[in-house]
Amino acid sequence: MRNLVLLTALFIGGLRSTGMAQEIDILSGVRIPCRDGIRLNATVYKPHELPSPLPVLLFLTPYIADGNHKRASWFAQHGFVFVCVDSRGRGSSEGVFDPFMQEARDGYDIVEWLAKQPYSNGKTATWGGSYCGYNQWAIAKELPPHLSTLNPVAAVKPGIDFPIAYNIPYPYSIQWLTYTSGKTGNTNLFNDESFWKSKFTERYQKDLPFSCMDSLVGNPNAIFQKWVAHPMVDAYIKSFNPSPEQYASMKFPILTITGHYDGDQPGALDFYREFMQYASPSAKERHFLIIGPWDHAGTRVPKKELGGLVFGDASLLDMNELQRQWYNYTMKDSARPIFLKNKVAYYVSNRDQWKYVAALDSIGKDKRKFFLHANDEGGSGVMHSGYLQSLPAMDSRPAQYTYNPLDKDSTVDSMRGANPNYLLDQSTAYNLRDAGLIYHSEPFEKDTEVSGFFELDAYIGTDVRDVDIDAQVYEIRRDGSSVFLTGQTLRARYRKSLEKEELLTPGEIGLFHFSRFTFISRIIEKGSRLRLLITSPNSIYFQKNYCSGGVVAKETARDAHTAHIKVYHNAEHPSVLVVPTMP
């Protein structure tokens, strides 16, 4: 049954507005039919005065439609119909929620149903971030005729950042599945960090197999077990995402948004890159990208302070207003948003400056190489580190560290966000002991813009068949303080491909190419140095690799092998950190 509610348009707290707001109507309990007979629950927000049909913005969410009430009201006040739809099996929608599997077809049906409603002019756009950013790409791959534009924000991409990050699972996946289990929102349980930390710690301390994580938290879950059974980018994972042929058929304009410290930056940019690889030339011309100094939540509501860093006023984009302008541009024949001066906008984090380029690949095209050298004393800590130098090492001996999966003492578990200054934190480096390696560059002779994607070619040998290796890069300022820049974790068996595993041969030296560092843009100031830290994750927040070469999700202490990892840097094995710079 539909309930009609008339609201007087007021300023919506926390959402800035532009122009004259309107009174709105809300239609609750709208039932949208799907092709298989399942009906999805929708809440429709629209201007009270509707002399003619309008474009419709669709928000398809597993997080319960009511959670987006304020933003939906704002867009309805500013000239759009905004429709919030509970995903199949969530909220008041019928059916069973099966993440990633259902959104494409259901989204197609919703778009085409909305186009026939009296308040719609036939043009429908999608809105949303994170999983709801993924939803937009899922809908787009079905190519509904009345889909006019996308605005994927911080979009999750299966196989790239969730539920596995470059083929490394993490226990947050069962936390998220518990959040989205059943019909109602389990928000309080999801946000109970003490509970989740205690359960993640219990598994870690007892060396229980990762596959038991769902039972351990009291939520035996078939979807979690299915995810565990697909630890690489296989046909199952690929089925969630657009194919090259589907990208090639997409004709609508797209605005992609992500952040330097957005945990789903890898997914957002992988969608962007694939589209730019396979889409038609005309479609590529209408794909815009914004990369700001934000974390995951900040891509929706930017803040000036993050992890101990403080950004300038230019970082505080009014996202509602920008998106309103985008939808006006793409569906109402208005001018392009003023902010979009070129195809790609990126923020230089310590200059409060937005810069513009025509293509993502043109950022950081100037490559500065820093070759790894061991120090003469053989140390590996902060005070006795190796070196990053402009010329390759000729006869530098390898540096070695040890990863013992059963060593609980060396663990540094600072969950991102728990330490308010986590981007400035140096505890990992100072507590490293012999469980990792550190390399420092000479001080920079002048201010240098470092923007784009770092790369690391490391020649590595070990005595185990598999191991996870993490590379992190920091700016070390003249006063000794640190700023985290970027990082990447690589599971050795997937060092050559995310689609096929290849175990290590113990004792053999091989090239590990770290090519998936996250995007960063920052001025490395005169007198600052770079720090490269190489270690192996040993944390409650990641699936532990016991180095046996077996099925990692089933490994326990019985399977543990201590890994002795050597990084080589000599004439035959020139390990090098490649730094992207701009003039």
Description:
The chain is α+β, with helices and mostly antiparallel strands. It folds into 3 domains: 3-160 and 236-362, Rossmann fold; 168-231; 366-582, Galactose-binding domain-like (Jelly Rolls, Sandwich). Helix content is 20%, strand content 30%. Strands 18, 19, 20, 21, 22, 23, 24, 25, 26, 27, 28, 29 and 30 form a 13-stranded mixed sheet that branches. Strands 1-2-3-5-4-6-8 form a 7-stranded mixed sheet. β14 and β15 (309-310) form a beta hairpin. The longest helix is centred in the middle third of the chain and has 14 residues, at 193-206. The radius of gyration is 25 Å and the shape is globular.
CATH superfamily of the largest domain, by name, is: Alpha/Beta hydrolase fold, catalytic domain
Return the average pLDDT rounded to an integer.
Answer: 93
Largest sheet: 13 strands, mixed
Structural class computed from helices and strand pairing: alpha+beta
Outline type? globular
Total individual domains: 3
Helical content (DSSP H or I, runs of 4+): 10-25%
How widely separated are the two ends?
61 Å
What percentage of amino acids are in beta strands? 25-35%
- Radius of gyration, rounded? 25 Å
Question: CATH first level of the largest domain: which class?
Answer: Alpha Beta
CATH fold label of the largest domain = Rossmann fold
Enumerate how many helices there are, as a single number: 14
Count the strands?
A: 30
Oligomer: single chain
The CATH architecture of the largest domain comes to 3-Layer(aba) Sandwich
